[in-house]
Design a protein that fits this description.
The complex is a heterodimer of chains A (241) and B (256). With 241 residues, chain A is α/β, with parallel strands linked by helices. Chain A is 39% helix and 25% strand. Chain A contains nine helices and nine strands. Chain B is mainly α. In chain B, α4 packs across α7, α7 (120-145) packs antiparallel against α10 and α10 packs antiparallel against α13 (221-246).
Chain lengths: 241, 256
């Protein structure tokens, strides 16, 4: 039975992961486009709730939804669309509420070397265009915009999430993609955004859902929708709900 | 006791996988157009990657085993680095060297119009990068174990160096070459990290079986399970086919 001794630290570690000490761990699942805004949000929340550790998990809303479906520990889910909240709706407590909006923009390399100005310019076969699968919110929104504009594109790659599109464009591997305006803003000087006209654009609504009964989960959702939370979201370019 | 735990540790994930597999959907998933495309792409790219690994790997293994030169151990470490490296890191490295804006990639594009990211060629490069070390290591150790005196005897009897290599050395290390080829091929078939990082993901062009499996997990977990089963069956068949040659008496490598 000496073998059992070897397993003990391993089991102890597994247990420790879920509860390091007396502090409360809050698992917040946030869609990729919220990365920077929710890092700031978590810090601000932790500052006013010193006994809470916010553990942020960022990925495509569709990835997060499938992790939740598979039983990942989660207290709060902030998605870039309602469709992915609906996938886990049986685990949602109360009504999900829209806390932010976003719009789409064409992203190009810094200073737009190809001079892309319209959605039609993306159809040029020499332009390497990247997007996401339609299961990922940005992929679905992009498809909606292109359908409105009557433009058909053949992407060279379907990235895992919106930040994947940003990375492929800012490193110069791809020429353009369609992402949220907040992503172009977050990319700073490494990317240039090209506006999509209002009549062709879509408004992306971001719902936030509570998936646990903990008071902290409720407090976090309240904080995100408070004026303090609003201010942080605005700072990162998100629109009002 | 520890051996039992180890066996259980290896066996249980497969039990779980088989348990959850929607067997009634297997036929549907396997005949699905996109799955067949991913499987076919995987077969083509992994075979090509193995051919490249063989073409360049055997000479490299021979040099490492038989030629004494400065920095030999450094070269050996370099040649096997991608085996221990997390594949994603390999992908990032390829990206910044052979990508469109990469150190060397920009010249590939400017001078030859060759573009690797987002192309099937990029998949083959990524797979070759991670799989060749398996062949090099296996073949190099066979070259080392092979008694060079057989070679010397052949040459003293009038064989040229090339003739002795081809007719004496190569047949003797054939089992090791086969083992190396199979290991490299299996590694290429399973390649995920370097492929998705360097070559991207597009059905029919760069979306191989492992990528399709991973991405299906989000949208259609049943399909992901079936895809996993297909990969397991292929890998298992290879292992069993290999068993006699590879796990047999190591002396056979030098004899045969």
């Amino acid at each position: 039975m000496r073998a059992a001794w070897i397993l003990i630290p391993l089991l102890g570690w597994g247990a420790a992961c879920s509860n390091p000490d007396d502090r409360i761990t809050l698992h917040v699942f946030a869609t990729s486009s919220l990365t920077a805004a929710f890092e700031e949000m978590s810090e601000a929340f932790e500052a006013s709730n010193p006994d809470v550790d916010v553990v942020l998990n960022v990925a495509a809303s569709s990835t997060l939804a499938s992790q939740i479906r598979d039983g990942a520990p989660v207290d709060v889910f902030a998605s870039a669309d309602q469709a992915n909240v609906d996938k886990v709706i049986d685990r949602v407590i109360g009504e999900p509420s829209v806390f932010a909006t976003n719009r789409l923009q064409i992203i190009t390399e810094a200073s737009n070397p190809l001079g892309i100005e319209t959605l039609n310019d993306l159809a040029d076969p020499s332009v390497l265009f990247v997007t996401c699968d339609v299961d990922v919110p940005i992929g679905a929104y992009t498809a909606a915009v292109l359908a409105k504009a009557g433009v058909t594109l053949s992407p060279v790659s379907l990235e895992e999430n919106v930040k994947g599109i940003v990375a492929k464009v800012t490193t110069g591997e791809a020429d353009a993609g369609i992402v949220f305006v907040t992503d172009v803003l977050a990319a700073g000087s490494t990317a240039t955004g090209v506006d999509i006209p209002d009549d062709l654009n879509v408004i992306a609504s971001y719902p936030i859902a509570r998936l646990s009964n903990d008071d902290e989960a409720e407090a976090f959702v309240r904080f995100v929708t408070s004026s303090d939370g609003r201010a942080i979201l605005e700072q990162f370019g998100f629109g009002e709900a | 006791m520890l051996a039992v735990i180890a066996t259980a540790f290896f066996a249980l994930p497969f039990v779980g996988l088989l348990w959850r597999t929607p067997w009634s959907d297997v036929a549907d998933v396997i005949t699905d157009q996109s799955v067949r495309r991913a499987l076919w792409l995987s077969i083509q790219t992994s075979v090509l990657a193995t051919v490249f690994a063989l073409l360049f790997g055997v000479p490299l293994a021979w040099v490492l085993a038989r030629v004494s030169f400065p920095f030999r151990s450094l070269v050996r470490a370099l040649a096997t680095l991608s085996m221990v490296l997390p594949p994603v890191v390999g992908g990032v490295a390829l990206f910044f060297s052979f990508g469109r804006r990469g150190l060397f990639g920009q010249y590939l594009d400017d001078w030859f119009g060759v573009r690797l990211p987002f192309t099937t060629a990029g998949v083959v490069v990524a797979q070759t990068f991670v799989s060749m070390p398996f062949l090099v290591l296996t073949v190099e150790s066979a070259f080392r174990q092979f008694d060079i005196r057989y070679d010397d005897v052949a040459r003293s009897l009038g064989a040229t160096r090339w003739h002795a290599f081809r007719r004496v050395t190569l047949p003797a290390i054939r089992p090791a070459i086969i083992a190396g080829v199979v290991l490299a091929w299996a590694r290429a078939l399973g390649e995920f990290g370097a492929t998705i990082t360097f070559a991207g993901n597009l059905p029919g062009t760069t979306q191989t079986m492992p990528l399709a499996t991973y991405l299906a997990l989000e949208t259609d977990p049943g399909a992901a399970l079936v895809l996993s089963i297909v990969l397991i069956v292929v890998s298992f068949a290879v292992l069993i086919g290999l068993r006699d040659r590879w796990l047999g008496n190591p002396n056979e490598v030098t004899r045969s």
